[in-house]
Amino acid sequence: MAEPVIADTKPVVMELEAGDYYWCTCGQSTNQPFCNGAHKGTDFTPMKFTLEEKKQVALCACKHTQNAPFCDGSHTKL
């Protein structure tokens, strides 16, 4: 499988409302950490995740987390 582009070497920390979101898995989106369709023509597809309530999250931007879409500190080992 193709390797994702490392969009950043730190997580994107933000407060999100409850709802559905699509996390970029390819690293090519200009709307990081969310998908903008830049994966078209690749082996990647966005990852849908749902928040049941408003909360602060740290979303992975290096695309190497083992806890997608959330940061697990993998960026410190790149």
From TrEMBL:
Record carries keyword Iron: yes
Origin: domain of life: Bacteria
Gene Ontology annotations for the cellular component aspect, listed alphabetically: cytoplasm
UniProt name for this protein: Cytochrome C551
UniProt domain Iron-binding zinc finger CDGSH type: residue ranges: 9-45, 46-77
Organism phylogeny: Bacteria, Bacillati, Cyanobacteriota, Cyanophyceae, Oscillatoriophycideae
Record's keyword terms, sorted: 2Fe-2S, Iron, Iron-sulfur, Metal-binding
Keyword Iron-sulfur belongs to the record: yes
GO molecular function: 2 iron, 2 sulfur cluster binding; metal ion binding
Species of origin: Phormidium tenue NIES-30
